[in-house]
Amino acid sequence: MSERFSVMKVLYRSVLKPVLFRLTTPDTAHDIFVAVGEFAGKYAILRALVSFFYEYKGKNISKVVDGITYRTPILLSAGFDSNGRLTRILRSMSFGGEEIGSTTAKLCEGNPLPRMTRLVRNKSIVVYKGLRNDGVDALIRRLKQTPRIPEYVIGVSIARTNSKEVNKTIEAGIADYVETFKKLNEANIGDYYTINISCPNSFGGETFIDPTLFPRLMAELSKVKCTKPLYIKMPINIPWNDFKQLLETADTYGVQGVIIGNLNKNYKDLDHPEDAPAQFRGGLSGKPCFTLSNELIKKTRAKYGKRLTIIGVGGILTPEDALEKFKAGADLIQMISGMIFGDPGMMKAICERYAEWKSHAVSQ
Ligand SMILES: Cc1cc2nc3c(=O)[nH]c(=O)nc-3n(C[C@H](O)[C@H](O)[C@H](O)COP(=O)(O)O)c2cc1C
Question: Most distant CA pair in the chain: distance in Å?
Fold first, then answer.
């Protein structure tokens, strides 16, 4: 690890982060990060400065997955850059790509504040965003106007609009997903698409994690002629039997893979459950997702071999955690909480550890 990198890490962890955590709510801190990141992404000099500290420039660790080349196998997970404002800066922080969204057919204001609560001792965030985003039309406009950064993959996560009116019936919910998918596909925005069926805090709940309803959604989505990889964002709190049925349906309809997985709804999985809001107020990110996601990745890999791509996400807080996800069977990994509870150099540290592990594995 270079000296400049260590100095920044100490400065960030011992000065900037404690101040940020003390003075800002997570919602404000997130808004600040997105505004600063979007600004920095516009200027080559600022991107170069961020790269100087945080971009991985070691041995080649690129990976081709479903025909797409990832410069590094780490992506920013869906929900942090919901409106696609950070596409020009994240490569400088060692991300090989990101999943924008989840985006929806109609604009969503999201749930009332607070939409995020930090549970610092638990290394977790209570997420109650409720799919707050500008809507797919605005996203398409923005991404068309934003020049792409080379060797940086953009996936787009698609969810059902969080509104009572849109979701009066199952058919209306399906039509809402299909509308967004079609629009993105026709506008040729995004390198891959994800169907998010597992948002735990939007109106109507997770309708399509029901194995009897999921085939109806897939039947309609599969009518859209799309040549890009399609993934399903899986829930992590359902019994293996139901999970397996969802996988079977996904496979039957020819999706390329699954993202395992979304937030944990079980507050008992916290190290300190007494820190959580008394009433359920959104899913948990971070540490409480780690083991659940790893177990499901292992089982999915064992059942499907290389037939399904697996993107592993949930509770990656250290480079060793990242390796565990790969060892469990993930082809790529995604993260959010590890960047928040760690520091902006976390992704570079993961790349370095991954490169070391890979070269060790090859030499054996
Ligand atoms: C603030 C926040 C918002 C999120 N919003 C979404 C979303 O819109 N769509 C989605 O598929 N997942 C969403 N998630 C879940 C993450 O993509 C990820 O699955 C989860 O946080 C576990 O990863 P982590 O432990 O690295 O944070 C969100 C997570 C956070 C922290």
Answer: 58
